[in-house]
Amino acid sequence: MSRIKAPPAKPAAPRRPRAKTMIAKPPGSKPGGAKPSVERRLIGIPVSEGVAIGPVFSAIEPEITPARRRIQAADIEAERRRLDDAVTQSKKQLAKLRGRLDLLPEESQAEIAPLIDVYTQMLGPSRLMRNMRRRIEENLVAAETAVHDESEAIAVAVLAVAGDEAEQRASARRHAEEVREIGRRLMRNLTRQPFRSFAALPAGAVLVCEYLRPADVALLDPARLAGVATDEGGADGHTAIMLRALGIPAVLGVAGATEAARPGALAIVDGGKGEVILNPQTATLLDARRAVTGFARQRQQWARLKRLAAITSDNQAVELQANLELPAELPLIAQAGAAGIGLLRSEFLFMNRERMPNEDQQAEIYRGFIEAMGGDPVTIRALDWSGEKEIDALIAEGLVPDLPPENPALSVRGLRLLLRQPEMFETQLAAILRAAIAGPVRILLPMVTTIGELRAAREVFERVVRRLRRRGERLPEPLPPLGIMIETPAAALSADALALEADFFAIGSNDLTMYTLAVDRAEAEVAALYDPLHPAVLRLMQFAIEAALLLRKPVSVCGELAGNPKFTPLLLGLGLRSFSMNASAVPRVKQRVRQISAEACARFARRVMEQNDSSLIDELLSEFAEAND
Ligand code: PEP
Ligand code: MG
After folding, report:
1. What is the mean pLDDT of residues 390-416?
2. Which domains does the chain have, with CATH numbers?
């Protein structure tokens, strides 16, 4: 098996560092920052509709106590390098937090800015850093042991020499805590941590934390959790997509949320408006309760559309399917009346586990989904690993490097990884093919940029088919179609060539927007620049759709664009007749489809495609929606 090389100095399974922006408060500072009785409104990115009311639960990272590890003299250099990497990573995290401070209320800025400066200084040429390096060399211990021992030794020394005055003691405690906090940050960036546990999350709570990975969302129980607010995150990152799919009201990218939210205090999360209200006054609370009831009523109305056909007013049939990221969504898909699964993101199968699932285990899971769809088609996407989707089993089995590359979105991900790890790819294809006797299945390849990748993938596919036949496995006839995601500008602009060889296209507008505009889809800082209505994105989509239609290849859109009814007329007008979206969006999009004629949409799309300014396009979309409501 070809393997991506792990970094040379691989210690006992260090974990991919996570973006951390939390600053521990020095002792003596007010816990939570806000007085309990003061109502406070924070603004973030609206990612998952609905209003939640509940007590704040702060998911703090578990305390770090790394196992003591001794090293050989030959490992000194490697350990020093690990420490340097962790220092660089920590500095980057602090710089990022510094850059976002002006989004915080002035009071919090004044409190946090000096702290960040102290931490940054400590990571420079300080005694702390020199001594940590010396411990690695002289005591022959691993980097995390050196960090732990040195930060603890300095903290204890600082406390020991504090004078008797209350002020001196408070100042010493503050300094000791600063040293320990920088030690914790370094250790977090150096060591592997256990999966985050949400077991203690009380029913009906609002989860407030700095950052949630997609793998963390996979551990949340939507029936127990009221809502989510995080400091970081973007509108169409996978965390946002999964929260939306689970129907958990959520606001991400709320600068200062963890600083301001006191555990146990009442909070309102308005996932439609992108607002988090802490310590709401009575009138605000009453409004929020009314909004909760209104939203539930609206859902009931949409549910009535379930049995109606998705057909335009001039009788064009439209396929509305659901995206699936977690098994917990299956009942929602059934309730929504989706015509099958248009995008099964198979990543969840590999998350929060130490070992990769084998062929039998995967086949059983795929079969379960296919049977649950009762004859409606299921499009299973092969594993789409990327830097953002932290998948523990891949790291544990050495299939991806422990440390993310400098530029994860542009490095080995999606189909690139599958082709580098053919055993892993073959296992998944074999499992899908075996499961496909249970109902109609299509296989989708993620992150294609060249026709060579598609050809190489087809070769692997055919090899797996031959092997399964030799093994005497029963396979579906005809074999499942092999399609590709159009989610890079390269794929979109080569769509005419790719359409000759791919069996179908699924347009991934999320990544297509990110790569076209050079804007990270999961990053709060550039969220305002992430715009799928940018004419460049629309032109790429138009080119890909026309290329598919010309060769009569099925084409759908499965990015978040598909689930927003405001975009439906434009997408229909561009020629799309197949959409896959989060299940709860299906009724709304169906309602819109039934209100409009394909012919009017085609005229409308021509007008839109003449524009070169996305804010004008947005206005046109709003006007069209109002005129056709
Ligand atoms: C996309 O990029 O639009 C897409 C559907 O894939 P994912 O969101 O899983 O990257
Ligand atoms: Mg994608």
Report:
1. 82
2. 36-58+197-301 (3.50.30.10), 73-191 (1.10.274.10), 309-627 (3.20.20.60)
